Amino acid sequence: MSVLVTGVAGFIGSQVAQRLLARGEAVVGVDNFSPYYDPVLKFARLKPLRGTEGFTFVEADVADRDALAALADAHPDFDRIVHLAAQPGVRHSKVDPYIYVRTNVMGHLVMLELAREMGGRLKHFVYASSSSVYGGNSKLPFSVEDPVDHPESLYAATKRADELMVEAYAHQYGMRATGLRYFTVYGPWGRPDMSPYIFARAIHEGKTIPLYHMGRIKRDFTYIDEIAAGTIAALDHVPAGGVRGGAHRLYNLGATRSVDIRHVVSLFEKALGKSANIELKPGEAGDMRETAADIAATTRDLGWSPKVTVEEGIPLFVEWFKRYNRL
Ligand SMILES: NC(=O)c1ccc[n+]([C@@H]2O[C@H](COP(=O)([O-])OP(=O)(O)OC[C@H]3O[C@@H](n4cnc5c(N)ncnc54)[C@H](O)[C@@H]3O)[C@@H](O)[C@H]2O)c1
Hints:
Layout: E1 2-6, H1 11-22, E2 26-31, H2 39-50, E3 55-59, H3 65-74, E4 78-83, H4 92-95, H5 97-117, E5 124-130, H6 154-173, E6 176-182, E7 185-186, H7 195-205, E8 208-211, E9 218-219, E10 222-223, H8 224-236, E11 247-253, E12 259-260, H9 261-272, E13 277-280, H10 296-302, H11 310-324
Parallel strand pairs: 1-2, 1-4, 2-3, 4-5, 5-6, 6-11, 7-10, 8-13
Antiparallel strand pairs: 9-12
The structure holds nicotinamide-adenine-dinucleotide.
């Protein structure tokens, strides 16, 4: 039996696949090398996976029903799905809203249909949601029990839609599923569109870093190794079935420390040995001011309690950033 991992060339997907392979699982990985950011980084993440026994790669778009049907026919042996392929990024959802609905809603539906057609063979459907679903909530830390009816971006709305679609499928078809609300993930192999990479590059090149909301932003930065471990802990914890056998759980995966963005910049300055040029800017619609995860349920059910602090994780990210970019 194997695990189907979508978005396998992505930041989180590649690390999850690596861990699954390391514990002897077979992995079927899917990705379409979306051009949202430089696919060269995606090829580089995939390289060590391709050389590992038990790994099979299929280049496909998750919103392409025929391609996914062909994949299911060619690989009839996976019994779990980790669906991480998505169009990420809050800001970009104002630039190209259609790709968010195509990948995050249609692609999500195609994955759910594939899971449904597996019937009893499917043991667990795990998928990526996001802390962005908490949107305009002012109560901190964010708990999975909190109402999430005020997304502040189309990206967040698609992630919330994903959760509701899974809820319906779990109910209608007796599916076991777990959604993971990731909080600002950073670390080696990180995404160039996210603040850690943007900060590192700008400081290295002596360029200006724009800090929105006049720099009054706090984020619950969560180290990639913890996220990969938490995703696998979730995969291993199949929720107990309800009346029709189905069950759907949601968990926050966040480090639980809301860190001031200016402190994060100072850690990059220290790790790179250079000062940052900061430009304070007003807030942009869609950008949340503060995020912090309540992980009581995650710790209770999955035994997950992250330890890596930004003081430890940012130097590790910078080390990789320099090596990868040959600086
Ligand atoms: N990184 C974070 O901080 C964060 C936070 C919250 C949620 N998430 C979610 O976690 C998941 C993984 O995010 P990530 O940071 O690894 O992003 P990523 O962009 O690095 O990885 C996503 C991968 O999916 C692939 N992809 C995109 N569209 C596809 C399609 N139509 N078909 C097949 N593959 C496609 C991309 O090529 C990419 O390799 C996403 O669902 C994202 O929304 C990430």
